Every structure is written in structure tokens, then in C-alpha cells.
Amino acid sequence: MSFFKKLKDKFTKQEETVEESQALEHKDESNESNETEESAEAETVEDSSEDNAEAVTAVEESESDEEPSIQSVEETQPELLPEEKKESIADKFKKGLSKTRNNFSSKVNDLVAKYRKVDEDFFEELEEILIGADVGVNTVMELIEELEMEVKRRNIKDTSEMREVISEKLVEIYQGDENEGVQELNVNNDGLSVVLFVGVNGVGKTTTIGKMAHRLKQEGKTVMLAAGDTFRAGAIEQLEVWGERVGVDVIKHSAGSDPAAVVYDAVQAAKARGVDVLLCDTAGRLQNKVNLMNELSKVKKVISREVPDAPHDVMLVLDATTGQNAMSQAKTFSETTDVTGIVLTKLDGTAKGGIVLAIRNELNIPVKYVGLGEKMTDLQTFDPDAFVYGLFADMLEETEEA
Ligand SMILES: Nc1nc2c(ncn2[C@@H]2O[C@H](COP(=O)(O)OP(=O)(O)O)[C@@H](O)[C@H]2O)c(=O)[nH]1
Ligand SMILES: [Mg+2]
């Protein structure tokens, strides 16, 4: 089976089961669905009522100090905007990667049109396009080498076959030798899990925590947030706004206080209330690198002292629009903190989405999630297949018609 065909099958079939498996966009009462989606939608509604039921029990257990009732749970269920309700993962990647698609895929198309034959000039220009999409020099070299071998192996002459080969190799290079599949947050199924979010100012830590809280809540978990960025003006309030939107508690101290103390209190509160996952925000000032790293290790020490095996994940948040800068941040942070996963935000805001391949291939830290927008449903697990689908969506859909 051809690679494009495989992708298409994966995502057209997935559309029917996506909300079942991810339990993300439930409460779906929008009427804009077309006829073909009706049966899938009916199933979604059924499934979501089950999810709600689970959420109800969870909330009743954890918030014993409040009057537990279905009413109060409904109040804390976030209101999704209509456009947030019904969107498959493939659609989200397609929309989120539109800038990169317009930049990268249209250049590949032009290239294919310009050169009919696969030759050295073709590869040279392809190399430029890939570097221009922030794929990263080392990764590009590897990729070109792989492509040249594949062209020989399959005896490809015509450039029109190259789009598919390129997409296939993009996925392969992301997956590497291990092919660990799509990676989620590392959380315990019993007992408290603590996740620390680190990264420089403005990359999207607080926003990601809000989105993550929403995701986890939709999966039926109870969540608490720790306002560990006590440094930046307005940071605590920003996290509180997310707490309210998503309907989870936020533990905070006043501005300027010791972040380790905030996190300590949050861990105690999370234990006392039987919370499943505690997400900890941190400050990201890089003006004083040594101080920041000391502060982070202090916070980390408090967490591991209070909860065995914690932090369960240390998520480094990187801004995709900063390109190679994100790479150097990743190096700085992973030298001093044991980063276990990456969230790459603002992929929707860059035409150079190739950075995700460079990060995975050159840093060897899994990109677990990507930010594809500012809404609370815009955090997705990173799936290289979905990524490539997003890159070549127009072409794939054309093939479908044929
Ligand atoms: N377009 C887009 N904007 C994002 C994304 N993630 C975060 N942002 C925006 O980036 C800005 C900084 O985010 P913030 O969470 O405050 O960063 P922090 O300083 O690391 O906590 C905010 O305006 C967010 O709305 C994303 O995935 N896509
Ligand atoms: Mg912040």
C-alpha cells in the first residue's frame, strides 16, 4: 500500500473514533454536522455522557468541602466555542500547519513542476527548501541521504513520485530507530502525579498548563495547578484565569514569594484532596540563568522529597516561532534539568514547522505535545503521521478524489 493511502486511511477512519479514544471534544451538541458524520456524532454524545459521569465521581471524591452535585460540575465544565467542538485531529493539524504547508508544500510542488527528472539539482533545491523550513542542517543532510538511497532503490526517475517519498522519509526520520509511537504525559494511574513545566518567558508555559488541565480533565482526571511563577507581573492571575476557565483549583502565594514554598503547599493540598495530577508553573526569566536553574532545582527537590518518583515529567516548553533559538534553549535547560519531554508551542504561528523534526532528531527528547493555537483545545499529542498529513493535506485530498 502506498504511504499516502496509508495516511489517508488512518485519518479518515480515525475521524470516526477520534473522540472516543481521545475523549476531547465531548458535550457535542452542535448542529452543523453533515449527514455522513451523523452516526459518529451520536456515538460521541453517548460516550461523553459516560465521561461526564466519571468526572462527577472524581469531583465528588476530591472536593468534599464543597457541596458535590451534578449542577456544580456542569458549572465547572468549560464552555467550548462552536469551532472547538467538532474537529478531528487531522483537521487540527491541517489548520494549525497551514502556514508551514503554504510555505513548504507549495515550494515542493513548484520544485516538482520545475524539474521533471530527479537529479542533483533537484536534491540541491530540496535541501534549501528543507533548511528554509527550519528542519535543521544535520537532519536535512540525513534526510537527503536517505532520499537519494530510496530513489536508487526504487529506481525513481520522475519527480512527481517524490512528494510521497519525501513525506514517508519525514515520518521515518522523526521516529528514528526506536519508533516509540505517540507519547503522552507520564502520569500514574493511582496516586498523585506531579508535572513541572519549564522554559523561558513567553514560550507558552502558562497557556500550555491551562490546555493540559483541560485535556486531563476531559480524560476524567482531577487536576490542580501550582502558581510557581511568582516573579513575572500578572503570572499568578493569568494561571488563575485558566483555572477558572477549565474549572480546576489553583494554589498560589503572593507575588515575589518563594516558588519552592508554593509548590510545597500545592503538593500538600493535592495530596489532601486526592488530586490525580498537579501541574506546576515556573518562572522563566533567563536574564539570570544561574538563579533560574538554582530555583528550578530547588523546586524539583521539594517535589521529589514529598512525592516518590516525582516529578513524573519535566516538560520543557519551546516556542516554534523562535527556530534555532529554541534548539539552544533546549540545550541549556537539558544541561541542568532532567527534561523528559518537550511541548512545542505556536506551530500554528510559524511557516517553519520543520523545527519539530530538528528538535526530535538532534536533541533526542520526545516532542510529546504541540500547540496549534491559543484555545484550550489546541494542545495535541505530537503524531508524526498527523504532522505529515497536515503538511500535504491538499495533495492527499486530491488523490482521494481521483
Ligand atoms: N498561536 C499560538 N499562541 C500561543 C500558543 N501557546 C501560547 N501562545 C501564546 O503565547 C503567549 C505567551 O504565552 P504564556 O503562556 O503567557 O507564556 P509563558 O510566559 O511561558 O507562561 C500568549 O499570548 C499565548 O496565548 C500556541 O500554541 N499558538
Ligand atoms: Mg507564564
Oligomer classification: single chain
List unreliable stretches of 5+ residues. Answer: 16-75
How much helix, percentage-wise, in residues?
55-70%
Architecture of the largest domain, CATH level 2? 3-Layer(aba) Sandwich
Keywords: Cell cycle, Cell division, Cell membrane, Cytoplasm, GTP-binding, Hydrolase, Membrane, Nucleotide-binding, Receptor
Subcellular location: Cell membrane; Cytoplasm
Binding site for GTP: 199-206, 281-285, 345-348
Membrane topology: Peripheral membrane protein
Could you walk me through the main structural features you see in this protein, from its secondary elements to its overall organization?
GTP binds at residues 199-206, 281-285, 345-348. One of its GO terms (molecular function) is GTPase activity. It is a peripheral membrane protein. With 402 residues, this protein is α/β, with parallel strands linked by helices. The protein has 3 domains: 3-29 and 36-87, no CATH class; 98-180 and 391-401, Four Helix Bundle (Hemerythrin (Met), subunit A) (Up-down Bundle); 193-382, P-loop containing nucleotide triphosphate hydrolases (Rossmann fold). 56% of the residues lie in helices and 9% in strands. It is built from 16 helices and 8 strands. It has helices spanning 3-22, 38-62, 70-76, 82-85, 89-96, 98-114, 120-132, 137-154, 162-175, 205-218, 235-246, 259-272, 289-306, 324-336, 355-363, 384-401; strands at residues 193-198, 223-226, 249-251, 277-280, 313-319, 341-345, 367-371, 379-381. The protein has an 8-stranded mixed β-sheet, sandwiched between helices. A hairpin with a 7-residue loop joins strand 7 and strand 8. Helix 7 (120-132) packs antiparallel against helix 8, helix 9 packs antiparallel against helix 16 and helix 12 (259-272) packs parallel to helix 13. It is elongated. The two termini are 16 Å apart. The structure holds guanosine-5'-diphosphate (GDP) and magnesium ion. Guanosine-5'-diphosphate binds at residues 199, 201-207, 284, 317, 345-346, 348-349, 371-374, 378.
